[in-house]
Specification:
Layout: H1 2-34, E1 37-43, H2 50-65, E2 70-75, H3 86-91, E3 97-101, H4 124-138, E4 146-153, E5 158-161, E6 175-177, H5 182-188, E7 192-194, H6 198-207, E8 212-215, H7 219-222, E9 231-233, E10 243-249, H8 250-255, H9 258-292, E11 296-298, H10 302-311, H11 313-325, H12 330-342
Parallel strand pairs: 1-2, 1-3, 6-7, 6-8, 9-11
Antiparallel strand pairs: 3-10, 4-10, 5-8, 5-9
Helix pairs in contact: 2-9, 4-9, 4-12
């Protein structure tokens, strides 16, 4: 009888332990499911810049809509990867998400260099909308190693200078900061391009290494460059833009559950307009900032505006020649860009 009672006691203990083990396993599975997916986001803009703040708002909105299942840690100011390193940093998993400019990696995105051409972009919303339309239409091979969340692009680039410029003749031999295709713009105007990131430009202007810079007006406030220039020259007749990417590591993207990918895509679609509007807001604030510093604004004559446009014809032709030599549809890409701008 005692053996029978002992057997019942042992069996009961085993059942209890089994239940406890199952409950613990279930609890562990629930905890694992509840644990958020943590993503790192490298961005070259300083945290104080409106574009970084708009990106931060994107991250917080993704977290909100995912009920905390996605958690995004921002690394602004190039603290995780610098502007030129950002794209490859995403490809190689240094960061899960990255934002930078295509132009900072010259030659890496030959077809998409067309987005930056001096075509007379009127504002940031238009440039941003067109950039996303073109990438959506062409699905370029040069972006196949990442997942594209969205693109954005600034308003028309202008010339900010330490000395007055009222004609193309005044530009001859000037040392002008430029990146990507804007370097070709500078050369076509008879000036000398100096390649550097926005973060390096303030010191270059202050020390006289550069006499001027091609940039959107917002840069003069966002990067404080308005403090070290004296003139803003209206070159919007050849207003170029600088297209910027927000991309995600492809393997990381594919590892996410479908519902989380849907949230990222949904918020990114909405931020196309938000980011474009941020550029236009920044341009307005940049102009106000520079005027507040007492700097001078120079409007070019109609003849000089036409001269600027004519000077850009070799830049457009070079783009078509270079892309078609690589088997890329540069001519149609340019024609589609011009058609979208004409709308």
């Amino acid at each position: 009888m005692r053996h029978y009672i002992a057997f019942i006691a042992i069996a009961a203990t085993m059942v209890t332990l089994g239940c406890t083990k199952d409950e613990t396993a279930g609890s562990s599975e629930e905890n694992a499911a509840a644990k958020p997916v943590e993503l790192s986001y490298s961005i070259f803009f300083p945290a104080s810049h409106l574009q970084a703040q708009t990106a931060e708002a994107w991250a917080r909105e993704v977290e909100r809509r995912s009920d905390g299942r996605l958690k995004i840690t921002m690394y602004p100011g190039g603290t995780l990867t610098t502007a030129p390193q950002c794209y490859e940093g995403v490809v190689n998993g240094i960061s899960d998400i990255g934002m930078s400019a295509f132009a900072y990696t010259r030659g890496r995105f030959p077809l998409l260099e067309g987005l930056d051409l001096p075509l007379g972009y009127p504002d940031g919303v238009t440039a941003t909308r067109i950039a996303n339309q073109m990438v959506g239409s062409y699905d370029p091979e040069e972006l196949r190693d990442v997942h594209v969340l969205y693109l954005h692009a600034h308003g028309p680039g202008i010339l900010a200078s330490k000395k007055p410029v009222r004609s193309i003749g005044d530009l001859q031999g000037m040392q002008i900061r430029a990146t990507g295709l804007s370097a070709k713009i500078v050369s076509s105007l008879g000036a000398v391009p100096i390649s550097m990131s926005q973060g390096e430009t303030y010191d270059a202007l202050q020390k006289g290494v550069a006499e001027a810079t091609f940039c959107p007006v917002e840069t003069l406030k966002g990067w404080k460059q308005g403090e070290v220039i004296e003139y803003v020259i209206d070159t919007t007749a050849i207003g170029y833009t600088t297209a910027m990417f927000v991309v995600m590591n492809k393997a990381r993207w594919e590892s996410l559950p479908e519902e989380l990918r849907a949230i990222l895509s949904e918020v990114s679609e909405e931020w196309i307009l938000r980011q474009g509007q941020a550029w236009d807001q920044s341009d307005a604030e940049g102009e106000e900032f520079v005027r507040g510093l007492g700097k001078s604004f120079i409007d070019l004559s109609d003849d000089q505006k036409r001269a600027l446009v004519e000077a850009m014809e070799p830049v457009l032709a070079d783009y078509v020649t270079a892309t078609e030599a690589k088997g890329l549809p540069g001519r149609s890409f340019l024609q589609d860009l011009q058609a979208l701008l004409a709308e």
